[in-house]
């Protein structure tokens, strides 16, 4: 029996109107996407900029309603935004988008608990525990984001995302703004946290090497359509779709150029 899906997209379409009011046109951002993420699975979603990857992530989180089709979360219709009650979370490319520069790190990390009405006395130890779990000194709760390095800020953003113990997390280009050495540290952190907490995740990235490292399956998007979904081991040996082969060939060329 296949593991129970945490997220399912069933024939999902998303269109929007664009252009001047006298010359409106319909733009298709996502077209006919069927996708599921099993409980405890990390699914990698790759493709070029503008392919629809982030839009799929926002649909999964209930931040965008589909124009057609349905999005299911834990068997029910995905609720909108904050009504998911801490059961889903997102880690974005820039940690500054999650950490208010005018607030101490601990206050930002605790914000999801504050929204849910968790008592201040209970939040205190949860903040320190969350920072420890992402490899940060609990004393950093009293610092401001600008006093942390880029890698430390992203760890704090991950702590913020996971503090409510969500069953589903979207990592949207979560390591692309980091230095290469720090990228690997954060990728290892994501793998370790997922193994210990067993959350499901959508790992959105244009970096096929990073996706290969953390994901068990890979989905490829092109111009709003899902062109291939496959096991990570098979995909990186023999991708089926011509666009997938083109993406992988680009990675190999870049690797040879870097080595040279």
Describe this structure in words.
The protein has 260 residues and is α/β, with parallel strands linked by helices. Helix content is 35%, strand content 27%. It has nine helices and ten strands. The chain has helices spanning 53-60, 105-109, 111-115, 120-133, 150-162, 180-197, 208-214, 232-235, 242-259, and strands spanning 5-18, 25-38, 42-46, 68-73, 76-77, 88-91, 168-172, 200-205, 217-222, 225-231. Strands 6-7-8-3-9-10 form a six-stranded mixed sheet, sandwiched between helices. Strand 9 and strand 10 form a beta hairpin. The longest helix has 18 residues, at 180-197.
Give a quick summary of the entry.
The protein is of the alpha/beta class and 260 residues long.
List the helices and strands and how they pair.
Blueprint: E1 5-18, E2 25-38, E3 42-46, H1 53-60, E4 68-73, E5 76-77, E6 88-91, H2 105-109, H3 111-115, H4 120-133, H5 150-162, E7 168-172, H6 180-197, E8 200-205, H7 208-214, E9 217-222, E10 225-231, H8 232-235, H9 242-259
Parallel strand pairs: 3-8, 3-9, 6-7, 7-8
Antiparallel strand pairs: 1-2, 1-4, 4-5, 9-10
Helix pairs in contact: 4-5
Keywords:
6-stranded mixed β-sheet; globular; alpha/beta; 10 strands; 4-stranded antiparallel β-sheet; 9 helices; 260 residues
Main-sheet strand order equals: 6-7-8-3-9-10
Residues in helix, %:
25-40%
Q: What's the number of helices? A: 9
* Major sheet: 6 strands, mixed
């Amino acid at each position: 029996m296949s593991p129970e899906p945490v997220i399912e997209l069933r024939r999902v379409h998303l269109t929007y109107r664009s252009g001047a009011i006298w010359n409106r046109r319909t733009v298709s951002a996502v077209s006919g996407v069927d996708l599921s993420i099993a409980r405890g699975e990390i699914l990698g979603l790759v493709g070029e900029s503008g392919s629809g990857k982030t839009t799929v992530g926002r649909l999964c989180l209930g931040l965008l309603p589909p124009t057609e089709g349905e999005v299911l979360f834990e068997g029910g219709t995905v609720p909108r935004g904050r009504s998911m009650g801490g059961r889903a979370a997102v880690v974005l490319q820039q940690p500054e988008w999650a950490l208010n520069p005018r607030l101490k790190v601990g206050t930002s990390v605790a914000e999801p608990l504050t929204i849910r009405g968790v008592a201040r006395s209970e939040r205190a130890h949860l903040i320190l525990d969350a920072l420890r779990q992402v490899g940060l000194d609990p004393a950093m709760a009293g610092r401001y984001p600008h006093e942390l390095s880029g890698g430390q800020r992203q760890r704090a953003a991950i702590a913020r995302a996971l503090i409510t113990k969500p069953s589903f997390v979207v990592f949207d280009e979560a390591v692309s703004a980091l230095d290469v050495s720090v990228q690997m540290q954060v990728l290892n952190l994501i793998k370790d946290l997922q193994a210990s907490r067993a959350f499901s995740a959508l790992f959105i990235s244009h970096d096929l090497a990073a996706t290969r490292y953390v994901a068990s399956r890979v989905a490829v998007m092109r111009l709003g359509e899902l062109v291939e979904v496959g096991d990570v081991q098979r995909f990186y040996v023999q991708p089926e779709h011509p666009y997938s082969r083109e993406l992988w060939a680009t990675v190999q060329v870049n690797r040879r150029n870097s080595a040279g």
